[in-house]
Specification:
Helix content: over 70%
Shape: rod-shaped
Radius of gyration: 26 Å
CATH topology: Four Helix Bundle (Hemerythrin (Met), subunit A)
Strand content: under 5%
Number of strands: 0
Number of helices: 4
Order of helices and strands: HHHH
Number of domains: 1
CATH class: Mainly Alpha
Length: about 160
């Protein structure tokens, strides 16, 4: 009888141990999958912001060079902005981290602000000094917001 009881307890103990190990492994896989999803979402948003910012600066350069805005250039700018929206939505579906989402929105808003600067008249390939300063300031702020998002995102991914 004792032999049977020990055998039953050993079998139950083995089953519980196996179940626990599988449960822990599943949790670990889910955490790793979530970490990868977050990393991909952050990277996608950062890349989209860079492309959008690039399109904004290409518009500034074209204006400085007195080149007219073409329908193709506008389409590229709109597509870049739409990609930012898609990437932001993906990040929002991946995390509810309010601080990370706020940093993402700040990076987006500072890039969009480049398009809010009224460029005015070009003289010798330059805008008025206050416009040139506003462009430099907007560039610096957008880069800082981008860096803040990248650093916060990396901290969350590697936590």
């Amino acid at each position: 009888m004792w032999t049977t009881l020990i055998a039953v307890l050993g079998t139950l103990g083995g089953a519980v141990t196996t179940g626990l190990v599988q449960h822990l492994a599943d949790r670990s896989r889910k955490r790793e999958h979530a970490r990868r999803d977050l990393a991909d979402a952050i990277e996608g948003l950062l890349a989209a912001i860079v492309t959008h910012r690039e399109q904004r600066w290409l518009r500034v350069a074209a204006t400085r060079e007195a080149r007219p805005d073409s329908p193709e250039a506008r389409e590229r700018r709109y597509a870049a902005r739409s990609q930012v929206t898609r990437a932001r939505d993906r990040l929002a579906m991946t995390t509810n981290d309010a601080e990370l989402l706020a940093a993402a929105q700040a990076a987006i808003d500072t890039t969009n602000a480049l398009g809010d600067i009224a460029l005015g008249t070009v003289v010798d390939g330059r805008f008025a000094p206050e416009i040139e300063q506003a462009l430099r300031d907007a560039r610096d702020v957008s880069r800082q917001a981008h860096t803040a998002l990248r650093e916060l995102g990396a901290a969350r991914v590697h936590a």
